[in-house]
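Recap from last week: sequence in, structure out.
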Amino acid sequence: MTINMGPQHPSTHGVLRLELDLDGEVIKNTRPNIGYLHRCFEKYAEKMDDYSKVVPYTDRMDYVSAMNQEHGYVIAVERMLELEVPERVEYIRVILAELQRIASHLLGIGTFGLDLGAFTPFLYCFTEREKILDIFERTSGARLLYNYFAIGGLIKDVHPDFKKDTAEFTKTLRPVIKELNDLLSTNQIFIKRTANIGVLPEKVALNYGASGPVLRGSGVEWDLRKNDPYSIYDRFEFDIPTGMGEVGTIGDCWDRYIVRVREMEQSLRIIEQALDSMPDEGDVTEAVPKRIRPKEGELYARTETPRGELGYYIISDKSASPYRVKARAPSFVHLGLLPAISKGALIADMVAIVGSIDIVLGEVDR
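Predicted structure tokens:
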């Protein structure tokens, strides 16, 4: 029998349609159908009469980690312009990017638990995520789509209590992560629903081009912030959590989940180091160019977002508009894994598998 899971299904994390070929409740094949949330990002970008006007459209791809989307794009254009960004700007960007990583993982972990029947961790996660959104709102004026990173700097300076608010948040989140682990990570029902389910072997992950927590969940220690550093990430001490098969097989749903939990702790380490070293003085708009016309040529820049490697391939024809902007979205790549890791699973397991790869459909369809 062939049935549809989605596009209106609470556990597909957006308008995703999965065609499942079944034998009873056992999945024989999966065909992901996309295109229900097409953003037209790449064509919009090419129609803008200024490179800076593309930034709001990056927000709308992965809308739960918009700061990371902006970060990757402005870095790409700055490299085309050979533009040097002020120190203070770099530190603020890193802090915001890591706060956004935590916010994204809190959303991913909370809804993953909810998919599998655990309601309380979802409330814990959303409570903490709201604190991050409060900081973002005071900084940029928005809670979801920010348009805050500018090519060469930031739209405006952070609010006066930014460092204090962020430092307070880092202190309050650590005990919450421990409570989350007690509630969810070691819960026997949760383990039974995620251990040995949707196993992604290292070789398959590499062949499919997986990245981020999905790749690291398969035991591969690869993080662009360390392996191909950008911005000022080479100044910070942090570890790369990987899946180790602690409760099942390396690369299963539980491993992908626990990597995100442990990544939040590492992001806290980066934020604390950045807060200690961040210059108190400096104009965040001084390097923002009034006119942006990169030399003729092409460039690919990649950054580590909460979902993996986000790449921007930009072609310039020396005009004020980008000739071509191509986004390499990790969610799109990871969706291609579903047929490989769901074969032989049950329908109920598909809910866990989709939740464990943590897709955002705006990024899939771009």
